[in-house]
Amino acid sequence: MRTVLGKTLLIVCVLATVGACSRREPDLLNFESSNVGPDEFSVLPTKPLEAPENFAELPAPTPGGTNLTDPTPRADAVAALGGNPARLSRGATAGESALIAHGSRYGTAGDIRTVLAAEDLEWRKRNNGRVLERLFNVNLYYRAYEKMQLDQYAELQRLRARGVWTPTVPPEETLAR
Q1: Is this prediction's pTM over 0.70?
Q2: Which of these ranges, 5-19, 23-37, 54-68, 89-103, has the smallest mean pLDDT?
Q3: Are 22 and 134 in contact (CB under 8 A)?
Q4: Pick from 28, 22, 23: which is nearest to 142 by CA?
Q5: Closest to 114 (Cα-Cα) out of 122, 102, 104, 105
Q6: What is the residue-wise DSSP string for the chain?
Q7: How confident is the model at residue 110 (pLDDT cuts 50, 70, 90)?
Q8: Residue 171: pLDDT above 70?
Q9: With helix as H, strand as E and coil as C, how does 23-44 read?
Q10: Residue 44 CB coordination number (10 Å)
């Protein structure tokens, strides 16, 4: 009886160890959908159809071109924020150019997205969780990135000590100044 229990326990431990040693990309959030359906975030709503004043004066169709009902999220966002969407194609204004120059004064990296993706993949591989956490799909996201979290109250105190105006205070913070 004792040897059968020992062998069974050994087999379970070996299977758990082998099952946890995966070569796939680490997934720290472990969200799993129970149904197979459409992705509601991949659907872009189109603009409402409009009838022209004169159907005889319509321009010729342009195959592969744009349509008045095609979604234009960037131009729509600019218009919603009070900007002029027609200025998007003209480039930056003088004020925007100054902001861009100040933001890029130490240089910019053209491959920043690929560099960050590679660094994050390496971080997730190093912080992939323990065997049982991976085996039972425990959410590891917050613990893996805990060292990178900003302490909002310590930052608020640091900014206030330097005399920086902080109009938006975190909700739990007392307003004593």
Answers
A1: no
A2: 23-37
A3: yes
A4: 28
A5: 122
A6: -HHHHHHHHHHHHHHHHHHH---SPP-SS----SS----GGGPPPPPPP---S-GGGPPPP-TTS--TTS--HHHHHHHHTT--GGGGGG---HHHHHHHHHHTTT---TTHHHHHHHHHHHHHHHT---HHHHHTT---HHHHTGGG---HHHHHHHHHHTT----S--TTS----
A7: confident
A8: no
A9: CCCCCCCCCCCCCCCCCHHHCC
A10: 9
Please tell me the distance from the alpha carbon of residue 108 to that of residue 153, in angstroms, as a whole number: 31
CB 28 within 8 A of CB 143: no
Cα–Cα distance measured from residue 63 to residue 102, given in angstroms and rounded to the nearest whole number: 42
Q: Check: CB of residue 32 under 8 Å from CB of residue 137.
A: yes
Is pLDDT above 50 for 113? yes
User: Could you give the CA distance from residue 52 to residue 46 in angstroms, rounded to a whole number?
Assistant: 17
Parse the chain into domains and list their residue ranges.
73-108
Q: What is the pLDDT of residue 142?
A: 81
Is the pLDDT reported for residue 145 higher than 70?
yes
Query: Which of 173, 159, 127, 130 is closest to 146 using CA atoms?
Result: 127
